[in-house]
Amino acid sequence: MYAVIKSGGKQYRVAPGDRLKLETLAAEVGQKILLGEVLALGRGVDLRVGTPVVVGAAVTATVLAHGRRDKVTIFKMRRRKHYAKSGGHRQNFTEVQIDSIA
Questions:
Q1: Calpha distance 15→1 (Å, rounded)
Q2: Looking at residues 12-34, what average pLDDT do you find?
Q3: β-bridge pairing 83-89 and 72-78
Q4: Nearest C-alpha neighbor of 86 from the set 99, 65, 71
Q5: Are 21 and 95 in contact, with CB atoms under 8 Å apart?
Q6: Whole-angstrom Cα distance, residue 16 to residue 98?
Q7: End-to-end CA distance of the chain
Q8: Core-most of 28, 41, 77, 96, by most CB within 10 Å?
Q9: Torsion angle, CA of 31/29/17/4, rounded to 10 degrees?
Q10: pLDDT tens-digit profile of 74-91?
Q11: Does pTM top 0.70 for this prediction?
Q12: With the C-alpha atoms ordered 34, 10, 20, 24, is the resulting torsion angle positive or negative?
């Protein structure tokens, strides 16, 4: 069984036991959370698609950790103009493990 969920403006295909990194969620480590925006449910060849969400469907997950992703380096340069600028960005994330799909 699998589900397509929406979290942080992105869509993820998840199954029980999967670990994934979502945008930061306001939850403590070890806490169980309910991901209610289920866009589709699938079991084998059977697929239920919501309009826009599947009514009554929910995904339960456990928060494993909070962290920051690897740095993305940004470098801007104009040749022959003596202009060079560098910067970076590290996005925060919440790592969760999918427990069940109901």
A1: 6
A2: 96
A3: antiparallel
A4: 71
A5: yes
A6: 5
A7: 10
A8: 96
A9: 70
A10: 999 999 999 999 999 999
A11: yes
A12: negative
